[in-house]
């Protein structure tokens, strides 16, 4: 059982297609450390080499039988999931109705939403849910039933989420990114996920956004790295996410990522 960590008002969920067959073209490459060298070649001095090193290949060609394998140093390529541009990935395990542990990969994309794959059998991943949104996602963070998606504002265009675009219009600040918060609803009988949009948080500094995010163990707080203006700690306990504290770059320097101690009492900044 996983405790629900979000109490915010839920907005209508967004429909997400569940195709029987996964499309082809480029993203999720799953690997497994093998006990012995597989499909590698020996170079000078006996060092195993990847015959496709630095060779760009279409997603559907990677590790396809008869084509160039991608494996080296006792690592074997297992599977591809193609059809979108991936940006970040995070993992979570759940216990289904039969008491079996299932492993899931949460994959952020550029314009194709978040995709959730069952990777219990890493050689045969399949779609288990998702959240559709046209924004270009950065970091993806999941803890319990809470999924947080990060969006930067890019010079090439405001490729943020629908929710953040609306907040930018309302605040007359068209160049701000932030985070979207999504609640996960796990069906233990099917092993699939439904998602509900909880809301979004707009970064408080113009042209800022969120490159990486971290959820506090309690689920009540989210650290947002704005990339340009330091870290903002977001309070999730009310009906809408709101700023609780701003830690400026003058204090933290060029911080990139944040983690919390197991008891949640200490925040570590890297």
Please give a quick description of this structure:
With 270 residues, the protein is mainly beta. 5% of the residues lie in helices and 39% in strands. The longest helix has 10 residues, at 162-171.
Would you mind describing this structure in some detail?
5% of the residues lie in helices and 39% in strands. The chain is mainly beta and 270 residues long. It has a four-stranded antiparallel sheet with strand order 6-7-8-9, with no helix packed on it. Strands 10-11-12-13 form a four-stranded antiparallel sheet. The longest helix has 10 residues, at 162-171.
Strand content range: 35-45%
Low-confidence stretches: 1-13, 17-47
Distance between the termini: 32 Å
Going across the biggest sheet, name each strand in turn. Answer: 6-7-8-9
The multimeric state of the shown protein is: single chain
The helix/strand order is EEEEEEEEEEEHEEEEEEHEE
The helix count comes to 2
Output the structural class: mainly beta
Radius of gyration: 20 Å
Mean pLDDT: 76
The rough form would be described as: globular
Largest sheet: 4 strands, antiparallel
């Amino acid at each position: 059982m996983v405790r629900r960590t979000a109490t915010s008002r839920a907005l209508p969920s967004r429909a997400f297609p569940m195709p029987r067959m996964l499309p082809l073209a480029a993203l999720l490459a799953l690997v497994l450390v093998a006990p012995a060298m597989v499909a590698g070649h020996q170079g000078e001095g006996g060092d195993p080499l990847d015959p496709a090193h630095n060779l760009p290949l279409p997603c559907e060609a990677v590790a396809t039988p008869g084509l160039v394998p991608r494996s080296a140093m006792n690592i074997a390529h297992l599977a591809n999931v193609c059809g979108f541009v991936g940006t970040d990935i995070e993992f979570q395990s759940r216990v289904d109705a039969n008491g079996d542990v299932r492993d899931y990969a949460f994959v952020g994309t550029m314009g194709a939403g978040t995709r959730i794959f069952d990777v219990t059998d890493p050689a045969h991943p399949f779609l288990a849910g998702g959240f559709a949104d046209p924004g270009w996602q950065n970091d993806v963070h999941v803890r319990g039933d809470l999924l947080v998606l990060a969006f930067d504002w890019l010079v090439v265009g405001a490729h943020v989420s629908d929710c953040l675009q609306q907040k930018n219009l309302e605040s007359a600040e068209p160049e701000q990114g932030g985070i979207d918060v999504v609640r996960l609803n796990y069906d233990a009988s099917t092993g699939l996920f439904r998602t509900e949009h909880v809301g979004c948080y707009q970064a408080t500094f113009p042209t800022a956004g969120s490159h990486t995010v971290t959820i506090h163990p309690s689920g009540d707080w989210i650290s947002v790295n704005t990339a340009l203006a330091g870290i903002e700690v977001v309070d999730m306990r009310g009906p809408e996410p709101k700023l609780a504290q701003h830690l400026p770059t003058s204090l933290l320097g060029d911080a990139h990522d944040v983690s919390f101690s197991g008891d949640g009492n200490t925040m570590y900044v890297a």
